[in-house]
Amino acid sequence: MAIRLLKSNIKTPVKRQKKATPKKTTEKDPTKNRNSAFFQEQNLSNELADVIGVEKCSRPQVVKLLWAYIKDNNLQNPDDKRQIICDTKLHALFKKSKFFLLR
C-alpha cells in the first residue's frame, strides 16, 4: 500500500515535443482544374448574349460579365444589395422584375 501511494505522488518528467516542421507545399498544376467542363466555353442563349455582349463564354466568365453589367447599370437595390432590380434585358433573361442573388 505504501509503495502504491509513493508511486502516485511521484511526478513523471514532462516530455518535450519537437516543433512541427512545416508541410511542403506542392505547386498545383494550373491546367489540371481548368480542363473541366465548368471552364469550357459554351454557346450562350440569345438573351444572355444580349446582356453580356459575348456569344461564347465559360461559366465563371458569364458570372463576372453579369456582375459587371449589374454594377455598371446600377441594378442593385440600394437598401438590400442582395436584391437585383431587373431592367428590360434582365427581365427578358430571368422573367422576373427583381430577384435575390442567393435564391
TrEMBL record:
CDD domains: SWIB-MDM2_like (cd10567). Signal peptide: none annotated. It comes from the Eukaryota. Residues 1-39 are annotated as: Disordered. Residues 37-103 form the DM2 domain. Gene3D superfamilies: SWIB/MDM2 domain. Residues 13-22 have a biased composition (Basic residues). This is SWIB/MDM2 domain-containing protein.
